[in-house]
Write the structure tokens for this entry.
Amino acid sequence: MSEIANISFKALAEKYGTPLVVYDEEKLRERLQAFTENFKSDSVKTDVIYASKAFSCKAMIQLIQEYGCCLDVVSGGELYTAYKAGFDCSKIFFHGNNKTPAEIRMALELGVGTIVIDNVMEAEELLRQIEGTDYQIRVFLRVNPGIEAHTHQYIVTAHVDSKFGISMLDEKEIAYVTDLFEGCDNTSFAGIHAHIGSQIFDGQAYVELVRKMFAFAAKMKKEYGVNIDSVNLGGGFAAYYTNADHPIPVDEVCAAILRTAEEENVKINHQIKRVCIEPGRSIVAEAGYNLYRVGYIKKTPNRLYAFVDGGMSDNIRPALYQAEYDAFIAGREDEEKHADYTIAGKCCESGDILIQSIALPEVHTGDILVMRTTGAYGYSMASHYNKLPLPAVVFVKDGEDRVVIERESYDHLISLEK
Ligand code: LLP
């Protein structure tokens, strides 16, 4: 694969410099289409909510709008980006375990449609701000269903002591919070939200989640009189990084969720009217490529290093989660493999290894190394470590390329400094 959308990777590296993040816009569109087409039901309303933490910029958010999806934001910054992209704020779901009073105010002022409340104190803060005003907001409550999906421990979010949500075991606390919102003229309580982890390969985890959420909704109605008519199942759908990964196809996982939802809904008298999912990674990961220029090659007793001009500053996932990636040398994909290389970044940290070991043809200084599947949580978790400027981000489609985020300059890097 020496080209993307009929443009060679080498030409992109020449034109824009490296490190460079490139997205195949057609792939982004395919994924959005796959989710919106497959997550539809005759018996319940459905929403596909893009989790913008995976990759957020104005161009991306405009694509989300084009496909009629809703948007998950978790901070004032993500909300501001959506607002500046012209996104319809009534379709925003505002998440987070510690939304500041200023962020809550901002959400109300911008007309955010839905807020996902995480805890009792946050519920009280929202009420303090909204009561007696003209603002209206729909409320979901994040619950912790106690389901652990098999994934890296830093990415698991629903174990018993998770910082997110109120445990389903704390029914009285949940009833207290929902009563607060039902008793307020400015809020309408919609339902419950859960997110069980990320990079989940096991469709059964979602089936269990649907069962648990629907049964819980029915129980809360019966025993506490709480009106839950919407269920938001979060995201977490896996992407393909290396040939060890076998993600569930989008149509299958959507079908499994909706089939289970329909079955469970029959048991509870069709109480649930709306089901939502929040994919992030599975929409953007495979569309993204990071391009680096190879610098020096170094042999140590046990390793052969190829150094590249980026690293943990533009993709912290290998260092943070031991995430694995596939890569190739642009224009030399068909050449015979020469040796196993360790691809190391340029940051001053021994852990700055992008790929521990990968078979490549003989790597030369100046080669363009292309890492695949970097579209999720790469740029969005980038840092200025070692004062490396952030890379540019380019969208390519039908032989055309366009910058969606400029490369940071040194002047921009120090622009806030006095
Ligand atoms: N909804 C909520 C409430 C979430 O917390 C998340 C991700 C998502 C949706 C989207 O999950 P996805 O479909 O992207 O898996 N930085 C980590 C991933 C952290 C995910 C946090 N929450 C990584 O690079 O793997």
